[in-house]
Amino acid sequence: MNLVAEICRDIFVRTVIIPIMPLKSKITGKLISFEGSEGSGKSTQIARLAEHLQQIGREVIATREPGGTEIGEQIRNIIVHNSKGDEMCAETELLLFAAARAQVVREVIAPALTRGAIVLSDRFLDSSTVYQGIARNLAPDPVNQINRFAVGNVMPHLTIVIDVPTEVGLARVRQRASDLPDRMERENIEFYDKVREGYLLLAQQWPERVVVIDGTKTADAIEKKIWTAVSDRLG
Ligand code: TMP
Question: Is residue 176 classed exposed, middle or buried when 0-12, 13-18 and 19+ CB atoms within 10 A define those classes?
């Protein structure tokens, strides 16, 4: 078994049951998270899915992590754009992502789910499992515990991983002429290979929740696959 697979096995197998702080509200909506490496095309597909869902009369809230709230956007700025960013240790990074997540869950996601809305989140707790736990090699127990503490009882009903080979994703990021790569985008190819492998292992571990979609297909073909996965689960 290679190193990444071993770390993943630890993360998945050694999930500790810790007391979580339940959110007071009763959840009737659905949370769909989108995951994948840089350049996987999540944003395009979130916009397309939101349109489909609105067309069938559902209330849709789209949010992103880190971010989605004023506090979360400030935290995002510290993580990805801070001038001292390269000096940030992995533990700080994990806690900052978790802090932004705790805020968006309580301020945006839980209230929307209580109203019966469908929430589309560009990244959620699996990003911390994969980026901080697997790619940054942080110990699995604290990553799991911090994740669970941040989300309370809000877990995705469905997670869509858009999978692209590392070189394809990074080439797409480089083509975005908008600005210089941020701190996360400056990571090397081995880091992103671990991210990709982590997501694929995650899907094996939770096949009922996590669906992998081939992100090298056309945007229309990906949209169709996602719609099938979502409508199957909306009932
Ligand atoms: P984005 O560019 O997809 O919006 O994500 C911002 C970056 O933050 C991306 O490189 C993934 C990373 N990230 C983590 O490392 N851990 C997390 O928990 C989250 C939510 C994002």
Answer: exposed
